[in-house]
Amino acid sequence: MLGQMMHLPLSIIEILRFSAQNHPKAEIVSVRTEGDVHRYTYPDAFKRVAQLASGLKKIGIEPGDRVATLAWNGYRHFELYYAIAGLGAICHTINPRLSSEQMSYITKHAEDKVLCVDLTFVPLIEVLKDQFAEGTIYILMTDRAHMPESKVDFLCYEELLEDEPNDFEWATLSEETAAGLCYTSGTTGNPKGALYSHRSTVLHALTLSVSLAKTVHEGAKILPVVPLFHVNAWGLPYACPLAGASLIFPGPALDGKSIFDLMDREQVSSAWGVPTVWLGLQGEIAVRGRNPEGFTSVIVGGSAVPRSMIEVFEKSGVMVCHAWGMTEMSPIGTHGILSAHHEETMSEEDKLDMKARQGRRAFGVDLKIVDEAGVIQPHDGKAIGELYVRGNTVINGYFRNDEATRTVIDSDGWFATGDVASIDAEGFLTIQDRAKDLIKSGGEWISSIDLENIVMGHPDVANCAVISIAHPKWDERPLLVIVPNGEARVSKDQVDKMLLKQVAKWQLPDAIEFVAQLPLTATGKVSKLTLRQNFKDYKLPDIV
Predict the structure, then answer these.
(1) Among residues 448, 437, 443, which one has the least CA distance to residue 471?
(2) pTM for the whole thing?
(3) Residue 97 lies in domain
(4) CATH of residue 131
(5) What's the CA gap between 524 and 519, in Å, rounded?
């Protein structure tokens, strides 16, 4: 027997309509590529989104068309998210840090009809134009006064909106309609596309608002340093309007000083981004001797967060939430908000240890770990296996890529993450490492993440990474690569003494190498693939 309830399809545009009606004072503040700051409210945004939808429809955008964006975090990019989806088309966000080959591949694979570009990327488009499909429509996200001379025939974004009505008859779409397309960074092989639906996106926004209600709430001011081109800025363009939180968009300036100044001026309450960004902010905080005004929480994801980073923030009064997820998961899968009983009963040191883990699953996301034979392992905090996930916000396959899909979806429909993990009895996830980053020494596994998190606690270490180096006797051994903090160089003996407090002697790195900086992936994570290539001919010292 079915319940007798109305069934209205979940729709992305309804998030913005709701926000315009219920949160009319919340703002979107944007540092623009034109050099100034723009601010308006959600009702203002809803009207401009209607104008944009009319303009896009006039240039031929139809349901199912892919409209690509190559842009920073700003209000025009936000408007495109909603107008494109509201038309039944698909917003394809492109990471500008991808190689030209990867960028060319994904635009052709997606069959983008339109490419919307921020001013910063005009030179890039001029170079790559011949690699894009013939007939692509180019829109420059600025006004007439800032339109540059270019060999690319750009339409002007603001002129597209000009004279269009500020209301629009939004079509009723199936909630399964595709709305967003985001490609993995493609560190191995070609990038793979995750195709999100209206249903999955709205459910993800609801999940985010519930799971992280301490930070995503009415009156909050949230800074997504995580880019809109990186898994939809972790869902914030949808969760913030839904909850009534203001969005503070940083534009292209993501260095520590620029982020500090923006947060201080706008009194940002919560900032979201990858660990490499927060290293820069913590450096600026140290220089100024204080936190930005109003700063109370930071959400960190994308890669493992060093315990030392968490400790610095927490001791200054900033709550840290370590989250985990993937492009294929929309992306939030877990969050590190502690339970009330943890806050009441744990020591501060134990809380830091807990926050360094990847947290508990968000509602709607199921987790399991399996051994090499595919046998499900217990959630006892001891058993380790490959992590699988499933849920309404998890893909069931890659866009137009059946071969890649077959390698990640098991017979029961679960998605294989490629992470090796354990889960304890209270549901807290600990990522031991990416399967490809584990170091197998003499038949035993060494976690590069564990070593990195400990070494990052040394004051003379600004950043570090551990990679495997081939060894004639032990198969693989760890090499520690360090970015020094200033002129001092931490010694191997100092590192060993630090590590031996928490790991076995056989897990110690065989050598240390110092570099000016670590290579990063297109999404701001340390690229261990590049590091391994850089050190592929490295000879470890003879150690018995």
Answers:
(1) 443
(2) 0.89
(3) 12-252
(4) 3.40.50.12780
(5) 9
